[in-house]
C-alpha cells in the first residue's frame, strides 16, 4: 500500500474509531481496508469544517445532550439568592455548572455533566494559561411576563463559538447539543433567573485548552464549561442615561488577519490599560479606531452604530461592516434585521471615519450614536473624547430616538411581550 494511502487510512481510522468499537483491537490492515471500503465516507472525501457561513460539524464528532449526567448540589451547597438591586455584573454565581471534557487519545468529547458549582483543577502548564488558547460566549436567559424562560438566538452564539474554536485549534461541537445542555442547566437553576425586566441570568460558555505541555500548538485535551450569573447593569451611565467614550488613535483593538472577529480572551486583556486611562478622563468606554483614516470599529465590548441624515435627506442607521476587525454581534445582527423592516429608516453597513463623524456633527446631520451588545443591549452615547477635545453627540436630544425604539423592541422580544422567532422558550 503506498505511504500516502496508508497515512490517509490511519488518519481516517483515528477519526472514525467510534464507528469501529468492535474491532479496535484488531491490527490487520486487511480488516481496516474492509471497513474502509464499506464505510459511507471515503478517506479522501472526509469533509473539513468551513469557516463560512457556518461550521459543518458531523453529529458523531460532538458530545450529546442525551448523554448528559446530572449531579445536584446538596442542600448545604446551595447559595442564598441576592437581591436584584444588588446584582451588578458577574458578582454572583448559580448553584450548578456544566462541564464536558475533550481528550483526543480517548476518542474526543466525553459525556457532558452538570455538577455543583466548583473550582476548576488544571495543570499549571495548561495551554490556556500560557498561550491564551481559550474562548468564550455571552448569552442571557430572560424571565418573561408569562414567567416562561427564554434564550435569545442561541444558535448564533453556537455558530460564533465554533468559529472561534476552529481559529484557536480547539475542538468543535454540535451547537444544538450544547444548547440542550445549557437549557437543562438553566432549568435546574431556574430560580436564579431574576423576576425582573431590568435583570437577567447571564450564561457564559467557555472552552479552554488544558493539555499540560509547552509549545504553541493545537491542544490534545480541552474543557468546555458553562457557568451562570444573575446580572443587572453592565456599567454606570452619566446623569443623562448615556455614556461618554474615549477615542485614542494611537492604540488599536484588532488588525487585519487577526482575531478581532472572534470572541477570544486575548481581545480583551490588552484593552484594560486604555480603558483605565479613559476612566481617569471621565469616560466610560473606549472607541477603538483603526488605520490612517481613523475608522470606527467597536466601542468597549460593543458594536457601534451611528444615526444621521444622509445625502438624500433620509434618516440612516449605519454600522461598520464585518471586515475581520469586528465581532459579529448577535445584538448587532438583530438590530440590522429589525431596522431593515422599518420603512422610515435606511440601514447600511459602511466604513465610518472620525473625520466623517465630525463633519456630520458640524453639519447638524448627526443625530445619534449608540453601542449594542448582549451585556448592555443598547447604550446611547452622548460624548466622544478625541485628541484633547469633547465632541458632543445630540443622541439624548432627539424627541423619538432610534436607539430607544430598538432597545424597546429587543427587550419586548426577550421578555415575551412580543412573540418572535428570535426568542427560544425553555420548556
From TrEMBL:
GO terms for molecular function: branched-chain-amino-acid transaminase activity. Keywords: Amino-acid biosynthesis, Aminotransferase, Branched-chain amino acid biosynthesis, Pyridoxal phosphate, Transferase. Its EC number is 2.6.1.42. It catalyses: L-leucine + 2-oxoglutarate = 4-methyl-2-oxopentanoate + L-glutamate; L-valine + 2-oxoglutarate = 3-methyl-2-oxobutanoate + L-glutamate; L-isoleucine + 2-oxoglutarate = (S)-3-methyl-2-oxopentanoate + L-glutamate. Its cofactor is pyridoxal 5'-phosphate. GO terms for biological process: L-leucine biosynthetic process; L-valine biosynthetic process. Transmembrane segments: none annotated. Signal peptide: none annotated. Belongs to the class-IV pyridoxal-phosphate-dependent aminotransferase family. NCBIfam families: ilvE_II (TIGR01123), PRK13357.1 (NF009897). This is Branched-chain-amino-acid aminotransferase. It comes from Bicyclus anynana.
Amino acid at each position: 500500500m503506498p505511504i500516502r494511502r496508508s497515512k490517509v487510512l490511519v488518519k481516517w481510522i483515528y477519526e472514525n474509531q467510534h464507528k469501529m468499537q468492535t474491532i479496535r483491537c484488531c491490527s490487520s490492515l486487511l480488516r481496516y481496508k474492509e471497513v474502509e471500503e464499506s464505510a459511507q465516507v471515503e478517506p479522501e472525501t472526509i469533509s473539513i469544517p468551513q469557516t463560512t457561513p457556518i461550521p459543518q460539524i458531523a453529529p458523531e464528532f460532538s458530545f450529546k445532550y442525551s448523554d448528559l449526567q446530572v449531579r445536584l448540589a446538596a442542600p448545604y451547597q446551595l447559595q442564598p439568592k441576592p437581591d436584584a438591586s444588588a446584582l451588578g455584573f458577574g458578582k454572583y454565581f448559580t448553584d450548578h455548572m456544566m462541564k464536558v471534557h475533550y481528550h483526543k487519545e480517548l476518542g474526543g468529547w466525553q459525556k457532558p455533566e452538570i455538577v455543583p458549582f466548583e473550582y476548576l483543577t488544571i495543570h499549571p502548564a495548561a495551554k490556556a494559561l500560557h498561550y491564551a488558547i481559550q474562548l468564550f460566549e455571552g448569552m442571557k436567559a430572560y424571565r418573561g411576563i408569562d414567567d416562561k424562560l427564554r434564550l435569545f438566538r442561541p444558535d448564533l452564539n453556537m455558530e460564533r463559538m465554533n468559529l472561534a474554536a476552529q481559529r484557536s485549534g480547539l475542538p468543535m461541537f454540535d451547537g444544538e447539543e450544547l444548547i440542550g445542555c445549557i437549557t437543562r442547566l438553566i432549568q435546574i437553576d431556574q430560580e436564579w433567573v431574576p423576576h425582573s425586566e431590568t435583570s437577567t441570568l447571564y450564561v457564559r460558555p467557555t472552552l479552554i485548552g488544558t493539555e499540560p505541555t509547552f509549545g504553541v500548538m493545537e491542544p490534545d485535551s480541552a474543557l468546555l464549561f458553562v457557568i451562570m450569573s444573575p446580572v443587572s447593569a453592565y456599567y454606570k451611565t452619566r446623569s443623562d442615561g448615556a455614556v461618554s467614550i474615549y477615542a485614542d488613535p494611537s492604540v488599536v483593538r484588532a488588525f487585519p488577519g487577526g482575531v478581532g472577529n472572534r470572541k477570544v480572551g486575548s481581545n480583551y486583556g490588552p484593552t484594560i490599560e486604555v480603558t483605565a486611562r479613559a476612566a481617569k478622563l471621565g469616560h466610560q468606554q473606549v472607541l477603538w479606531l483603526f488605520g490612517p483614516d481613523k475608522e470606527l470599529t467597536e466601542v468597549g465590548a460593543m458594536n457601534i452604530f451611528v444615526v444621521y441624515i444622509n445625502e438624500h435627506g433620509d434618516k440612516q442607521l449605519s454600522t461598520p461592516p464585518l471586515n475581520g476587525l469586528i465581532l459579529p454581534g448577535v445584538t448587532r445582527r438583530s438590530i440590522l434585521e429589525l431596522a431593515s423592516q422599518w420603512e422610515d429608516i435606511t440601514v447600511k453597513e459602511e466604513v465610518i471615519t472620525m473625520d466623517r463623524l465630525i463633519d456630520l456633527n458640524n453639519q447638524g446631520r448627526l443625530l445619534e450614536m449608540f453601542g449594542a451588545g448582549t451585556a448592555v443591549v443598547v447604550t446611547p452615547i452622548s460624548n466622544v473624547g478625541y485628541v484633547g477635545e469633547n465632541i458632543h453627540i445630540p443622541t439624548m436630544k432627539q424627541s423619538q430616538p432610534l436607539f430607544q425604539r430598538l432597545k424597546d423592541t429587543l427587550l419586548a422580544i426577550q421578555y415575551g411581550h412580543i412573540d418572535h422567532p428570535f426568542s427560544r422558550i425553555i420548556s
